[in-house]
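Dear support,

We are seeing what looks like truncated structure output for some complexes. This example has two components. We would appreciate it if you could run it in full and send us the complete token output so we can diff it against ours.
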Amino acid sequence: MTESFYRPGDPIADGKAPAGPIADRWTTRKFEAKLVNPANKRKKKIIIIGTGLAGGSAGATLGEAGYHVVQFCFQDSPRRAHSIAAQGGINAAKNYRNDGDSVHRLFYDTVKGGDFRARESNVHRLAEISTQIIDQCVAQGVPFAREYGGLLDNRSFGGTQVSRTFYARGQTGQQLLLGAYQALMRQVDAGNVELYPRHEMLDLIMEDGRARGVIVRDLITGEVKRHTADAVVLASGGYGNVYFLSTNAMGSNVTASWRAHRHGAYFANPCYTQIHPTCIPVSGDHQSKLTLMSESLRNDGRVWVPKKTGDTRRPYDIPEDERDYYLERIYPSFGNLVPRDIASRAAKNVCDEGRGVGPGGLGVYLDFADAIERLGRKTVEAKYGNLFEMYERITGENPYETPMRIYPAVHYTMGGLWVDYDLQSNVPGLFVIGEANFSDHGANRLGASALMQGLADGYFVLPNTIGDYIARNDLGPVGEDAVLEAETRVRDRIERLLSIDGDRSVDSFHRELGHIMWEYCGMERSEEGLRKALELIPALRAEFWTRVKVTGRGEELNQQLEKAGRVADFLELAELMVIDALHRTESCGGHFRAESQDEDGEAKRDDEHFAYVAAWEWAGEGAQPVLHKEALEFEYVKPSQRSYK
Amino acid sequence: MKLTLRVWRQKGPGDKGAMVEYALDDISPDASFLEMLDVLNEKLIAEGEEPVAFDHDCREGICGMCSLVINGTPHGPERATTTCQLHMRKFRDGEVIDVEPWRAKAFPVVKDLVVDRSAFDRIITAGGYISAPTGTAPEAHSVPVPKPDADRAFEAAECIGCGACVAACPNGSAALFLGAKVTHLGLMPQGQPERWDRVVGMLETHDEEGFGGCTNTGECTVACPKGIPLDVIGRLNHDYLKATAGGRKK
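Here is the complete output from our reference environment:
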């Protein structure tokens, strides 16, 4: 029945992952890769879009390797990429705690945590590289938390039972990003990286079916510029802002990926959106974004709601026996540390029952009273002080005295452009790394694994695999026709956006789209809701192109024009997300289909029919997308129903 | 809440700017300062006027993109707070609020409230890093770092590079920004080999970019949203003297 929304296409094979024992595959791949002669590297140009953990580390490493790197970011400095906001930590299988951790256990946990919708080969490589990442970052001077003996400290993190998370207070992303940024600036100083901040990629230059460059807009002058290269790397992050309200930075967008998708790059698993359980609840209509509270808070905070529905007493007036510590009750072995999808949906369920707290009843308590009593306020302050401060600033409430209120929010997207084992998309010469690709997280990402993937891709994987592509393809200069074609597309689109001169602001469209997505393609999706969204989104898109008002001109700093282009792409992506969610009639990880649950209300996966990656091909405007399936095989981790009880 | 805003409007770098007054009503006290500006912009668009350009991104107080001099103070009246984390409940109903860009020679205005802070990147490029080629790092536990050093390095490393220190300084000096980086890297064993080159390179670039000299007024640390302490400047001066004295560096 859902077939009417898409057309089936040919299946795809996960090319390039070498055969053999899983622990040897990455070593094998590196050895098989053709090398570029060091003297030739500087003649080879690589474009990188984005300067976050993935892009920044890739630029630094490729620059150092001797390639000529041309790198862009839309922010005013590479140091501001949104990776900077990651709070909690980064996982690595160092087993410094002697608690039974190993590469194999990290691999196992990640495959299981991804609800058996990630690739074994990729995830194993990620686990292997994790230890090297910590070494690299320490060498760069990243000030990780230390113990009194001077060695690195660790903590446990949502979804795992071993302490393998390295952290720098609640600002791990910031410190890791600054490490990558500084390494990148060192390459700028050395002349290996040409850096263009406040530039946005608006299209891909394609020649003979290959990615050969990009068209960018200088966000200060409005000038449309062309850059050609031997290969293009997208490290442009996730697309959670399709929901308008999310934990993403305001500028985070899908444009670079979406423009590539329109040139044939498959978009994989777009419906897999991770909802983060510990965000500060919405306070009003003015709200522009949601703020995440690090998941590490769940190590010591206890989640609860009143047992009675509609209990409006203040939290400290509710006696112990009238509180429901529902995570500890339903999931006794993991308790407050259950994975994100489980914690998020459990919060939604108790709120749906009318037991939610705070304005509008959309919130649950995260209570530190026990931790403060057990550890003392000073210890709690040392661990979480900055998070408590942030909470107080936003809500005006003091979490040392009254429990925090939290609610789930859109955080991270596990879908993204399809890539092979080499992180190359199906468009030759187009590589995709970090959150912008789909490959390692399956349907649900565990805490502290996104930072690990961004840095693994950028420091260690891509620099090895892209060399193989460059060594095998000696490409000449790009023809003027290909460049002009891309440039014309960009100019026409800018012109079109500016000429509509309607009566509705860009933000008003974005907000409306966000409402539709959260309502019908959010924490829980149903066939009925998704079908409704498929009527609403195209109508909203049509209205956008007739009624949007973009003020100002193209040849200047024009923030409305920037937003308009991004929202136009979100309006197309949203439809694909809904189609993907509709066709996947199973529940897995962050994708919970109302029709697919067991008698306890737990997610019911369907391995028989859905153990595949859904890779979508663009078929043109208004045409049904084509679904290519990549079968997933599990040789090392037997798929089992995830149970945290 | 009802508010009167006086906002700096300037079309481009070469144009003359002026304060323009706008009246707003119905602002939620729970809105952040930037969300209040979003409301203003929606209103301006509806009235057919150009919205106010301002910088912002993460809105979580960590990316360092937001700026604004609010009632004469960088990032506004609340201590240790970025503009994006400043909420309207900190203002009075009916208040008149002045909103201006960072004011410093080294941060030229791009448009309205947006300034160019790329000089900071050039200071980092001149040595604000540890040279650690990818893939050659020793095992992380092979170099212990005393916890007090790691903690102090972390405090300095918290700098978000927003530039409030420069905007607050009567001399337009970036000594706090620079001191924070020199302190962060100089306290770690990994940062020692390049310690002296780093401080000299960064300070030379700082001066070339048009930042002023530091006269220890301390305004920077008062304005800093991350509470970077003034003693990082002491460390900067100490390292610079040590690097240049006795002919170690020119």
